[in-house]
């Protein structure tokens, strides 16, 4: 599914950034966790590699029934989700609706 079988004997330094990231995603999902936290999973990737990583994360999490929480500044990544929490200038919104905040 991640198209890395031919690289099984390669050292990490011999892999591209996208290949190393896919290996990391596979390792993170290997034990079928119930929660996956992904902080900028597509940072430093081109659009094609980023799409492949996000497809892998979303498909696998759906298959194993895991909750996927992604932190990202990439609008292409953010747009893939139905629920979007945004924190900007101290204001928290969910799907563009501001939450009432209290200091109590």
Walk me through what this model shows.
It is a single chain. With 104 residues, this protein is α+β, with helices and mostly antiparallel strands. It has one domain: Rossmann fold, CATH 3.40.50.300. Helix content is 34%, strand content 19%. The protein has 3 helices and 5 strands; from the N terminus they run αβαβαβββ. The protein has helices at 17-29, 47-64, 75-78, and strands at residues 35-39, 67-71, 85-88, 91-94, 97-98. The strands form 2 sheets. It has a 3-stranded antiparallel beta sheet with strand order 3-4-5, with no helix packed on it. Helix 1 (17-29) runs parallel beside helix 2. The longest helix is centred in the middle third of the chain and has 18 residues, at 47-64. The termini are far apart. The model has no long low-confidence stretch (mean pLDDT 86).
């Amino acid at each position: 599914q991640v198209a890395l079988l031919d690289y099984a004997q390669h050292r990490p330094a011999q892999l591209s950034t996208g290949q190393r990231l896919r290996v990391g995603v596979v390792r993170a999902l290997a034990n079928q966790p119930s929660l996956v936290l992904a902080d900028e999973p597509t940072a430093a990737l081109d659009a094609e590699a980023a799409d492949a990583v996000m497809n892998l994360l979303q498909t696998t999490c759906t298959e194993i029934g895991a909750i996927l929480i992604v932190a990202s500044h990439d609008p292409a990544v953010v747009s893939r989700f139905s629920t979007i929490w945004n924190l900007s200038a101290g204001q928290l919104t969910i799907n563009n609706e501001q939450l009432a905040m209290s200091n109590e």
